[in-house]
């Protein structure tokens, strides 16, 4: 993805988030230089990979297959392993109309996917085989706003604003906005986007960046180059 496109997506996303009554935390507005200056105090933000995250999954077709994310808060895997401390994470996502977030599951993370506002969020579901692999003929069980729901393979949940689904490891899922763009909330156990996303197809989680202009804000995938972490 071109850095100029990423910068534009950041601006558009911030505007949509504000329209729905949310405001991103102060570090979201830091310039790259300000982030470098604050790196010591912001150690947890860096280590837990909080912040801006925009991906086209390496396919180069962001409008068709991509996702905007902002990790608001996140614990560390050491907390989750010990069973105490900050064992949770929270994100805001934007799924544009007909923009696919492709079929995947998680090994560790359980998550609530919440339609925070906008159009309809479609979540396509499949179950796993006995080894945890994608099973095109197997369904499973999820909770929708705390109510048990047995799904069949390939079922497409239609989540209106305010509605949610709880997904556990082994629930394979893809999602997109239908009828317009959707602001999504995600509340989960500790999030590790570098190792805990298992895609059905061999695609990348992060995008390669073409530096055609300076970054407006750092992506979490920029932290290693800019912040040495």
From TrEMBL:
One GO MF term attached to the UniProt entry: metal ion binding
Keyword Hydrolase listed: yes
EC number: 5.3.1.15
Reactions that this protein is recorded to catalyse: D-lyxose = D-xylulose
Domain of life: Bacteria
TM region(s), chain numbering: none
Primary enzyme class: isomerase
Entries under Gene3D superfamilies matching the protein: Jelly Rolls (2.60.120.10)
Names of the cofactor(s): Mn(2+)
Keywords attached to this entry: Carbohydrate metabolism, Hydrolase, Isomerase, Manganese, Metal-binding
InterPro entries: D-lyxose_isomer, EcSI_cupin, RmlC-like_jellyroll
Similarity comment: family membership: Belongs to the D-lyxose ketol-isomerase family.
Official protein name in the record: D-lyxose ketol-isomerase
Taxonomic source organism: Mameliella alba
